[in-house]
Design brief:
There is one protein chain. The protein is α/β, with parallel strands linked by helices. Helix content is 51%, strand content 9%. The protein has a five-stranded parallel sheet. Strands 6-7 form a two-stranded parallel ribbon. Strand 8 and strand 9 form a beta hairpin. The longest helix has 23 residues. It starts with 9 loop residues before the first helix and ends in a 12-residue tail after the last helix.
């Protein structure tokens, strides 16, 4: 069974960019142009929900910047040419006019066990410039970096730097200098002949321990303020505010606090769902099961990661009985009721498992029917006409028929599936053209849990 999530590997970043899989290339281009226009110390917050594709976005932005920096060492210059050509094609055959910028990616969550964020930040910068840029051995930035690391940790970093260089760069340490001046020298030597500016992409800050997140922000503000640096924090602002409040207290004004650090806030635009669906081999417009899946995604405002996970699970759970029903016998009344449950209720159950496990528990235990109503708002009454008896109608002017509401029919359906007691001589309950019995609920729960006979882990 393949992983459902598209990892931000170099190959995936490149292919997604070249194929514009989620129609975000132009957003990347515009963001790079914003970064290119900055000529002073600046801190940018790129705001987006968890799973919205922020890491992909900033890594693709870095990839575009790197392609336009001639000091970058590429294993194969073909990729660089493809990246630059894509820019040219999208800009009416006008090549990019970007200043040369040194870019670094830093995963703060991956490093939040470090004793001081400056240690891992400086180390990440060293790793990046050593692997990507053509620096000469014994570059001043490495020597100065060793001093900075020693200042914040109280430890000698000879072995760490030696792992990056074959020669010892710690012979001439200048401890008498102030640390702020030392950091400025480090950054200046880093940019010397390698670029006009340094862009540091800081990712996953909102996932860090509160103490680490606050320390990283304040260390950068205090020590790393520099006219030639742009910081890009890809964060979920709401979650980061919660993190700040965990550190300073629930009454602390986290929004005002963050305003001290972020000069510019940019919201990550939504992806093109249609294009994203296509990349996942999902089209959502013909089979009822797929239509309901699409409605669940919209009703619960799933982000890209949640969409990929959700569609993966729904395909495993009940793809065959909802797309190839000839393989199964749904001809008898309760069987058709089960088929309706598979097509309509199971996608909602799987969606609840992802977004709110408490509501899922309430839903299957007969305590809350509202998820049916929430998803129905994205489907329309026509989808539920088979729940009507012959004497019922949703329309006011349907002569000779009793007008009923969709709400009332969904409650009937819910009661038949999750509330009704089938131990007192009642063997089935009819709702419109469908019948539901004691086994229907159990089968739906097993199906949503991927443990029914319908489950197929080989579905692509």
């Amino acid at each position: 069974m393949k992983s459902y999530e598209l990892q931000p590997t170099y190959e995936n970043l490149l292919n997604t960019y070249l194929n514009d899989t989620i129609a975000r290339d132009m957003d990347v281009f515009r963001f790079v142009e914003i970064l290119n226009s900055i000529d002073d110390s600046c801190s940018v917050a790129l705001d987006g929900g968890w799973g919205s594709g922020k890491t992909f976005f900033v890594k693709q932005s870095k990839m575009v910047l790197d392609a336009h920096n001639d000091f970058i060492v590429w294993d194969d210059d073909t990729d660089r040419i493809k990246i630059k050509d894509m820019w040219t094609q999208r800009h009416k055959n006008q090549p990019a006019e970007l200043q040369t910028q040194v870019s670094v990616y830093y995963d703060s969550w991956e490093n939040d066990n470090d004793e001081d964020p400056i240690l891992s930040l400086v180390y990440s910068i060293l790793q990046s410039v050593e692997s990507d840029y053509s620096f000469k051995k014994g570059a001043d930035c490495l020597k100065i970096a060793a001093n900075i690391l020693e200042f914040f940790s109280g430890k000698k970093w000879t072995q760490l730097i030696d792992s990056l260089k074959s020669e010892d760069p710690l012979q001439a340490l200048k401890k008498e200098k102030g640390i702020q001046k030392m950091i400025k020298e480090f950054l200046d030597s880093l940019l010397l002949e390698k670029g006009n500016r340094l862009i540091i992409f800081i990712d996953e800050l909102d996932r860090c321990k509160p103490s680490y997140a606050v320390r990283l922000l304040e260390r950068i503000k205090h020590y790393f303020s520099n006219d030639r640096i742009t910081y890009v924090f890809s964060v979920n602002i709401n979650e980061l505010q919660h993190t700040i409040k965990q550190y300073y207290g629930s009454d602390f004004n986290a929004s005002k606090y963050l305003d001290r650090f972020f000069d510019l806030r940019i919201s990550l635009p939504p992806a093109d769902l249609k294009r994203y669906y296509q990349s996942l081999n999902f089209y959502g417009s013909y089979y009822k099961y797929d239509i309901v899946c699409d409605a669940v995604i919209k009703a619960y405002h799933f982000e890209l990661r949640e969409i990929a996970k959700y569609l993966h699970l729904t395909k495993i759970a009940a793809y065959e009985p909802t797309h190839e029903s000839r393989k199964y016998d749904f001809s008898f009344s309760e069987g058709r009721g089960l088929q309706y449950g598979l097509m309509y209720v199971v996608p909602i159950m799987i969606g609840l498992q992802i977004c709110d496990s408490r509501r899922y528990s309430d839903f299957i235990n007969g305590r809350e029917y509202t998820p049916l109503l929430e998803v129905s708002c994205c489907l329309g009454e026509v989808f539920f006409e088979e729940l009507l008896c012959r004497t019922e109608s949703f329309k006011e002017n349907d002569e000779g028929k009793t007008v009923v509401t969709l709400d009332s029919k969904l409650k009937e359906l819910y009661n038949a599936l999750f509330v009704g007691n089938y131990n007192n001589g009642t063997y089935e309950v009819c709702v419109g053209r469908y019948s539901f019995g004691r086994s229907t609920k159990e089968t739906l729960i097993r199906t949503a849990s991927l443990l029914s006979k319908y489950a197929n882990t080989n579905i692509e």
